[in-house]
Every structure is written in structure tokens, then in C-alpha cells.
Design goal:
Shape: globular
Number of domains: 1
Distance between the termini: 35 Å
Length: 97
């Protein structure tokens, strides 16, 4: 990932200071924030920053409860094309109350 990538995500990486983010160390945070909160343009940019295989592996191997049911299904089934992979919604979908 190049340093310029983070600038495209500054509005969704709000819980941390951009200057203090480490591209590899904070990869899980960055990828899940973009997948769960990003626009379609930001999703495209994510794949310019990280290889799609790395994004998919991060999504499957390091689940985060950042997603609504609809965003989880959209990301899993259409963006990452992981329809046949097991990803339990309870590990990804945040509770609303």
C-alpha cells in the first residue's frame, strides 16, 4: 500500500490519526473500515492499495463487527465474491442495541 492511499480514506478512518497508521500493522482496521463504511469509489481504491486476495483473506481470517446485515452480504457476496466461503454473520454484523 502506498502512503497516498490513506488520503482517500480519511473520512472513514476517523477513529485514528492518519499520521500514526502503519499500512501493514493497521491493515485489518483499514480494510474493514473501508469495506464497511466506504463508498463504491473508496472500495475501488482499496483494491488499488491492497491486492484483492489480501483484502479477502483479511475479511475471512480477521472478522470485525463493523457491518450491517446488508453491507455484510454485499461485501461478502458481491464485492469479494465469497459466496461459497463460510463467514458467520455473527462475527461481522454489529448489534444495533
Amino acid at each position: 500500500m502506498n502512503k497516498g492511499c490513506l488520503a482517500d480514506f480519511k473520512d472513514i478512518l476517523w477513529s485514528r490519526k492518519l499520521k500514526s497508521l502503519d499500512y501493514q500493522k493497521d491493515k485489518n482496521y483499514i480494510i474493514h473500515q473501508v469495506l464497511s463504511l466506504g463508498t463504491l469509489d473508496q472500495l475501488k481504491q482499496l483494491f488499488n492499495c491492497y491486492p484483492k486476495k489480501e483484502v479477502s483473506q483479511t475479511f475471512l481470517n480477521f472478522p470485525k463487527k463493523n457491518y450491517t446485515p446488508a453491507s455484510f452480504n454485499f461485501i461478502k457476496n458481491y464485492v469479494l465474491k465469497l459466496k461459497n466461503k463460510k463467514a458467520k454473520p455473527e462475527k461481522y454484523v454489529k448489534t444495533l442495541f
